[in-house]
Amino acid sequence: MPYPAQKTLFWYPEMRPKNNPHTSPNSKAFFVLLLIASLLLGGCGGSSNKGFADNEARLEEAAKALTIYDFDKAYKLLTPIQDELEVGTPLWEKATYTLALAAWHKSPPDSFNLGQATELLDSLIKHGSSEDLVATARIDLGRIYEVPSYPGDTTDVEKARALYREVIETHAGDDFGYQAIMRLAQTYVQQLDEAGLEEAFRLIQVAVDDYPENPWKAVAAQYLGDLYADDLGDYAKALEAYQIAQKIGFPVRSKADIYTWRMGIFAERAGQERLAMDYFHEVVTDFPRSVYGTYARDRIATYLEEHPDSSLTVPKIGQSKIGGNG
Amino acid sequence: MKKFNINYIALLILVVAYVFAAGRFFYVAGYFGKEKEHASDEKVVRVTHWQLEPGYRDALDWAIEKYNELPHVKAANVRVEQAAITEKVYNQFMNVHLISGTAPDIAAKGKTQLIKGNAVARYYAPLGVYINDPNPYNTAEYLDPDLDPELAEYLGKASWKDTFTDGMLGGFDEELDDYYAIPISTWGSMRMFYNAKLLDKIKTFIEEAMEKQPQPAWLQACWIKKDADGQTTGYLPNNQRLHDWLKTDEPPETMGQLILYCEATLAYAEAENRPYLVPVSASNYTISNLAQTYEASFMTEFTEKGEVEIGSGVDSFETYAAWGAGIWSFDSPAIDAYYQFAQLVNRYFPQGYLGLDREQAQRRFILGNAAMISSGGWDAAGIFAGATNRDDPEDSFDVIVRPVPMPAADERWAEYLKYPKSEADFKAGVPMAVNKQSPNLDWSLDFLRFITSQPINEGLNQRAAWLSSIVGGENVDDMKPFTPEPEGFPPGDALSVRGAIAKIDTYFISQSNLVTSGDISLDTFKERMQTYLSSPRLGVDNYWFRKRQEEEDKSVARDRSISVEGYQVLMDDDPNAAIRLRALFYNSLILDEAINIQKLWEEYHPGKPFPQF
Q1: CA 20 to 30 Å from B529, out of A128, A222, B349, B487?
Q2: Domain extent listing, chain A
Q3: Window 91-130 of B, Cβ < 8 Å to A
Q4: What is the tens place of the pLDDT at every residue in A8-58?
Q5: CB-based contacts of B239-244 (< 8 A; 24+ apart in sequence)
Q6: Cα distance from A236 to chain B (closest Cα, Å)?
Q7: Which residue of A has its CA nearest to B491?
Q8: CA atoms within 13 Å, Cβ hemisphere of A207
Q9: Which of the following CATH numbers is that of domain A54-160: 3.40.50, 1.25.40, 2.40.160, 2.60.40?
């Protein structure tokens, strides 16, 4: 067998010919180089091992790392102390949740990391006393079961649904209840069949009709509106749902002009042309920086040609504020 | 004696190089990462950007100098320094320093492949919490006493965000629903630059040609008419509007006049024996390609059918997905019209223009060898200076800047080109982000407030010959034509035939260039595109597969952001994080696990299995 010397020198030592005068010193040299590199780079990773006054300080540092998406650092900081903390204490709860998020999101996502995140969240659900933390742990665990995190990751949508249902029962109407009911509905939408869609509509409608008004209702209402428009082509219902979201405030504030334009189109398609003009008017007057201003104005102008008796007027497109015009 | 192994020399060189590189890394890390140790304990706030255009660094130096002289800054022993980095290495520079935690305190956001999407939140500080208070440097003591009192009152009381001409949108991250940068300058919109001296000569040349009997063939070909087959030829009518325009000093006001002007330039160059004179100085720089400037306008007629969500526009994936579903085809009259136009405009470019770069195109215009060039406000200072400061004053000329003209209702292609692109949502540029790990966060913010105060921002941008990003900032006269025009169609509201996955985009661009230059016929182009896009491994099916994969990856990234924002809400009760969380959650509901892609596939190809590779 020809000897592919360079390729196999280090990676397949069992293939290395015995007594080759060149390989042995090179191998030694490589390991010397590796040692030097390890020593030099050793200083770079020391930050997570530095001493902390107490576990709280360490947790604080880990929380800070988590908020800047440094999941590895948060994981390294909390792993050594996790077993030392008294189960059920607030410190344990916070450390367990932080470590669970770090394990879930650290790279690379694999069965070990996700398994650890699952165990930690499970433990928090069993022993935690903070209702909010337990609720959020259930939703997070549901996501881990529901969404594949890496190629080949197995999912269990039924387990996820059970967890979301538990939160809906314990937190109906609060922020976590809204999140859980929408996550549950989403699993049904993703079935991509009629039965799933029906169940999704039923669930979100519950949130929109029965849950108290708070900013999360806008998320639910807009989602409902999107489903009515995209999946059923029911633009009248879509408009009703969007009206609720608009009243509370759209969740993505920067796109409010686009959503208002969309409401105008919904109204047009639902045969409520006069109402549509109101939304188009709003696009021009309330959002001078909207790129839909010209379209909205021209639609009003066309409407007025056909309905000259209307009390509407053609609004003017906003001028840019550059140069002090605003 | 044992024989010396020559490989040790190579090994030694390697070790020495490694030790040197590592040593240098730690030295640089120490330099950037910590406050530079000065005997006086001076705090240094570093600002990095890639704006190397003439005058910008000097202008920023002026603003920095003003800041460093402020009594409270001096008292705190703080000093701001700028380090401009060429855009060629900006990406690598920022990536290395952000990852190693040694990045400058303030850096222009963008130009980095790594710091995109959710990674922005990892490296840059969210600024939403700071922008609702008024800017303290807009109070009366810092403003010009002669400033309009109403404006002065507004600036003093308005939130920092509302003092920006774009409402600070240039620093807003839609995905994360928060502000991650403070934009300090505006470069304005794309415009046509005309050589005023040539304009005068060529308009006279047109007038003379119009008086000739018979008129020259090139001029007769410009008059719009229907031929025996009912096909439209020519570009504009010979009417009063044209005669009125010819009497003015104005550049072309309609697209028909623009084409007439280009045809006249070709004839003038021949008559004057000026082989290097061309109508349009184009290059491989997309902005200077006049045909592409109009491309989106030709592609607006399919939007309503191709748009998946109302108001979301049609991205390149949706464009090709709609092609696969038969919603539009390369046989559409609008596509034919666009390529007829592109082939025409191609005649106005220098020969081999795709081999020329942005600087070469500018030089041709500055040397008086092109009647016009299209570019943005960022190139204006260089073009103005080059055109007016020539060795021989006889060679200098004035530059007139105007928006790209649209066809009048009675001109060729008016049925396709109803609107220009709207510039209503212009964003201020040079977005300065604050390094999340900066030990000087407060001073960095203070400096950004200072340079975005009305008087300093006005001074900075007047010196740089850019547009102010602050309300009330007076701009230099030369820059006023770059003021964004809100009138027009939404820029995303057209087929995006460019910007697809690499395999499709590269093929489309190469074939499009060939048909535009006349190397292949339009029919060959259509046939080749049809074959390529229908090919499973190269075409649209592959695009579906890739897009779904991309959206699934984004779902995982979005979950990460939801976790972090949710964590901040839970642990810190942060109201801004709560707003970001709801925005991310909504996006997750409608996009999670590529549900939007799967639904679209079902709608376009009911019952067919999703492509797998």
Answers
A1: B349
A2: 54-160, 172-241, 252-320
A3: 100, 118-119, 121-123
A4: 333 333 333 344 444 444 555 555 555 555 555 444 444 444 566 788 999
A5: B239/B410, B241/B408
A6: 15
A7: A291
A8: 35
A9: 1.25.40
